[in-house]
């Protein structure tokens, strides 16, 4: 999933080298924490959160077929 998130986000940002995805597993939850360069934050979130919602939708649907755990994507400041 980390690779999928990076693949989706890289074309959107101006600083692809600043992309970091951390995985946090607890119980039946997996949380992926995405952090990008501060100047790219608006591009990743999009107007009214549309881009962020689209990223989450893709990751959720991909994870539902591979894992029995609940998957969440957080975009960190």
Automatic annotation (TrEMBL):
Its main subcellular localisation, reduced to a broad class, is cytoplasm
Q: Which UniProt keywords apply?
A: Cell shape, Cell wall biogenesis/degradation, Chaperone, Cytoplasm, RNA-binding
**Where, per UniProt, does this protein localize?**
Cytoplasm
Q: Determine the domain of life of the protein's source.
A: Bacteria
Q: Does the entry feature the keyword Chaperone, yes or no? A: yes
Q: Please give the SUPFAM superfamilies that the UniProt record associates with this protein.
A: Prokaryotic type KH domain (KH-domain type II)
Q: Does the keyword Cytoplasm apply?
A: yes
One Pfam entry name: KH_KhpA-B
Q: What does the UniProt function comment say about this protein?
A: A probable RNA chaperone. Forms a complex with KhpB which binds to cellular RNA and controls its expression. Plays a role in peptidoglycan (PG) homeostasis and cell length regulation.
How would you summarize the oligomeric state and partners of this protein? Answer: Forms a complex with KhpB.
UniProt family annotation: Belongs to the KhpA RNA-binding protein family.
According to UniProt, the name of this protein is: RNA-binding protein KhpA
Q: Which organism is it from?
A: Chryseomicrobium palamuruense
The encoding gene: khpA
